[in-house]
Amino acid sequence: ACAIDLIEHGTNGWSFTSGSSEALTQTLAEAVKADHPRLGENALHTIQNWNFEKQTEAVKAFLTQPFPIER
Question: What count of Cα atoms within 13 Å lies in the side-chain half-sphere of residue 18?
Fold first, then answer.
């Protein structure tokens, strides 16, 4: 599992739909062709800007936004 706000698909890593062998296959095909040094640099940049305080603020902001009510 990964934090969806940390992974930018194809830029600093990959994520795929759990339970989907098709999504996993497609993601692995992309990963094999990737520029791994660039991905590593991008991932390092992403995680260097992350901390628990920022994560907590992001969760608070998400939880306080208005949600549409379906009837």
Answer: 3
Residue 53 token pair: 């305080």
For residues 15 and 24, give the distance between their C-alpha atoms in angstroms, rounded to a whole number: 9
Q: How far, in Å, CA of 59 to CA of 55, rounded?
A: 6
Cβ atoms of residues 12 and 43 within 8 Å: yes
Per the CB < 8 A criterion, the answer to whether 51 and 58 are in contact is no
Residue 14, C-beta contacts closer than 8 angstroms, at least 6 positions apart? 7, 27, 30, 31
- Over residues 2-54, the pLDDT tens digits come to 567 788 889 999 988 889 999 999 999 999 999 999 999 999 998 998 888 98
| pTM (two decimals) | 0.62
